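Supplementary Methods S3. Complex input for the 3-phosphoglyceric acid-bound model.
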Amino acid sequence: MSDATEALCRKAPVIPVLIVEKASDAKPLAEALIAGGLPCLEVTLRTEAALEVIAEMAQVAGGHVGAGTLLTPQDVENAKKSGATFGVSPGATDRILDAAEANDLPLLPGAATATEAMQLLEKGYRIQKFFPAEANGGAPALKALASPLPQISFCPTGGVSLANAPDYLGLSNTLCVGGSWVAPTKAFEAKDWKTIENLAREAVTRLS
Ligand code: 3PG
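Predicted complex, serialized as structure tokens:
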């Protein structure tokens, strides 16, 4: 499980966190982000269209589409059936971990404390999402976990921006960051895919 999520986290410095209301936006959005250099996309299961969005995006060449905000075993099953190739969860429960394993879905589970990170490590998860990153102490908090828990690497997410991403990416225990800033709502509404492609490219250029 962790080998697969590690490979995904190493593909680009940012995993865009996407909240997509309309399935018709899925393909152009994925194409823009991938063209800008961000191939791993997290589609949060926070909209009615999310599963359809995943199915549409999964057809776009060059991308790796995951389902985020996995909260129940049913979410995991639905994500897998829709074509998600990885999952992301804000935290971790035994039911979610079991469902991810049963569905053979590589999972990036969330941890916010040393205890949560250790519990996940015991279950074999060496790659974890640090969430909510900024509210939880930001890069200094994540840095403090590196010395006692060097075998765990993170994708900090939540409040991460182009401005503070370098603070995280400079840490020995950070592989990539997650963030929504590369796909702002305004650009969606205007179907301004060029702006989104440029934001993705800017992130790759400044953070790689
Ligand atoms: C989320 O759950 O929405 C993610 O953590 C993204 O957070 P962000 O909008 O602060 O990037």
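The chain has a mean pLDDT of 97. Strands lie at 14-18, 40-44, 64-68, 86-88, 107-108, 110-111, 127-130, 153-156, 177-179.
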